[in-house]
Each structure stands twice: as structure tokens, then as C-alpha cells.
Amino acid sequence: MYQNDKPFKIGDITLDNRVVLAPMAGVCNSAFRLTVKEFGAGLVYAEMISDKALNIRNAKTMDMLYIDEREHPMTLQIFGGDKENLVEAAKYVDKYTNADIIDINMGCPVNKIIKCEAGARWLLDPNKIYDMVSAVVEAVDKPVSCKMRIGWDDEHVFAIENALAAERAGASAIAMHGRTRVQMYEGKANWDILRDVSRELTIPFIANGDVETPEDAKRMLEHTGADGVMIGRAALGNPWMIYQTVNYLETGVLQPEPSIREKMDVCLLHFERLMALKGEGTAVREMRKHASWYLKGLRGNGKVRTAINQTTTAVEFRALINSVGDGMAEEEMIEVV
Ligand SMILES: Cc1cc2nc3c(=O)[nH]c(=O)nc-3n(C[C@H](O)[C@H](O)[C@H](O)COP(=O)(O)O)c2cc1C
């Protein structure tokens, strides 16, 4: 059991528990967020949204603003490189969406984003963080949070300075991934630096990086003293991991893995939600990667995955996933190994 009596509160929003779904581009749309929420996440983050795309009302970007009422509390994340665009986008999210919290991305490591002076680029300059975050905080009513990495590279780890700059600027919470920009996803997340940051902040701190199991989540909370633990990759095709983690933190008991049928039912629920959100063609295409995550660990899943990758219709997709759930494909899968 994990004991921490301090309430976990961002602005005036009290979170039910300490388990947070990480923002993941191309993954954390409303269909996935709701599914994870139903497995008990205390807070879910949306995938990052470009300030400029939002400001020109790009149709796909506007669709990304959709939030299901059952997702609350949820955080919508924006990214950008210049103050004017960022503030304008934040104002839009503040006024016209039902997001509870506005998050600013200062962790994205990819070149395309860095070139626009956005994402992890900010990590080299605490003054810029202060300047940008204060401008957004002043312009909106909703609480503002920041998600960052520990630094740019090993020589530029300004984790504490950056976090304190955001706090001084009025941020209501900070989430931090324990890797530098240069590390991308290599090496290990540095939980010691997360602990050092956590000790300095007075606002809520959410620690992130390399939580793969419920036990990892407990270890991370204990090691860092963070208010929340953020989980990304471990939830891919595995939203029940969130439930297992919430439950483990509360009771100390590890829930058993769901059956293959139960797993496939969650995959189908996710799919139906994606269909409702994006239509059949896009949903089938986007579910290919999710299906391979849902099928991970099932021996000999290659044949079904190949079939799913060629599927263009919902009828076929459902039939394939159901065949796995019904155990028909399972025998075949084991044989294929
Ligand atoms: C596919 C994918 C997409 C991501 N997209 C975002 C994003 O849009 N915004 C963001 O702040 N971080 C993003 N991240 C980083 C995650 O939020 C998280 O910091 C990282 O995966 C480390 O946590 P984990 O070890 O639990 O996966 C992404 C990560 C992955 C794997």
C-alpha cells in the first residue's frame, strides 16, 4: 500500500488518485483517453496540439479538441515557439473547450518541433520558460501546467531552474520526464533528478519515465516524493495496467492480468470509440498499431497482425479481433510460433 495523505490538487481540481496518463501524439485522442479513464486514471492528458495549427483553425486540429464529458478531469496540451501564437491558442482552449487544465509542452524532442523553437528547445533557457508561462497564465482562467524533460543534454540539465521558473510564472503543476532531449527514449529515466526537483517545488509535481508495472509506480512515488506518477508507453494496448496500478497503490494487491477475451473486448471498445470519432477508414488504419499493442505478449500473434495490417473495413477488423478473443486464432497463433 502506498501512503500519502497530501491531497493531489491542480488549481482547484482535486484528483481522485495519483495515476496520470501521459500525453502521447497519435494515441491520446478522446477514444483512448476515455478508455483509460474508465480504468481509473486520476488524470488524462491529450496528445499535443500545435498552437499555429489551432490558430488557423486547421480542421484536423480542431477535431483534436473534442473531449467527452466522462473524461474529466483532463488536460489539453499545446506546443509552440513564440509567445503570440501560444497565448492566442491558450486563450482559445480556455474559452472554447471543456478541458480542465492547459498544459504547455516543453519536452518534445523531435527535430521538426525543435526547429520551430518549441518543445524541448525551451529547456536551455529558464528565462524563456518564465516569460512564456507567465504570458499564458495571465491570459487564461484555467490552471496551466507544464510538461518538460530534465534537460537538453548531460551538460545542460537545468531541471530545477526550469521547474522553478515555471512555478514562479504561475504554473499550477509540473510533469517531468526523467530523460534529456538528446536521450530521446534511450537509456534510463533519471529518478534521482526527479526527486531533486520534487523537493524544490511547492506546486504539485508529476514524475514520469520508465514506469512499466504497478510496482514501478509505487517505487517512483516513494523515490521521488512526487504527487503523481505519469504512465505513457506501459498503457499502450494495456489500459487495464492503469487500473492495476491505482488498485495496487490503494491496496497493495496486484490484480491478475485480464483474459485474452477481456483484452480483446477492450480493444474492440477502443475501436468503436475511434470509429465514432474519426470514421471507419481512419479508425481501421489507426487501430493497426493499437491492435499490435493489444496483441503484444500473445504468442504467435504475427499472422493476425499481418491480417489486421491489410484490413480496411470494420467488419474484418472486428472479426479478426473476435477470433483472437474467442480463442480460435489463439491455437493457430501458438502453432505459428
Ligand atoms: C508515441 C508517443 C507519443 C508521445 N507524445 C507526446 C506528446 O504529445 N506530448 C508530450 O509531452 N509527450 C509525449 N510523449 C512522451 C510521453 O508523454 C512520456 O513523457 C514518455 O513516453 C516517457 O514516459 P513512459 O516511460 O511512461 O513512456 C510521447 C511518447 C510516446 C511514446
Automatic annotation (TrEMBL):
Keyword Cell membrane in the entry? The reply is: no
Q: InterPro entries, from UniProt?
A: Aldolase_TIM, DUS-like_FMN-bd, DUS_fam, DusB-like, tRNA-dHydroUridine_Synthase_C, tRNA_hU_synthase_CS
Q: Does the keyword RNA-binding apply?
A: yes
**What PROSITE patterns does this protein map onto?**
UPF0034
**Where do the annotations place FMN binding?**
23-25, 77, 147, 177, 232-233
Which part of the chain is the DUS-like FMN-binding domain? 21-319
Return one GO MF term: tRNA binding
Q: What does this protein do?
A: Catalyzes the synthesis of 5,6-dihydrouridine (D), a modified base found in the D-loop of most tRNAs, via the reduction of the C5-C6 double bond in target uridines.
- What's the protein called, per UniProt? tRNA-dihydrouridine synthase
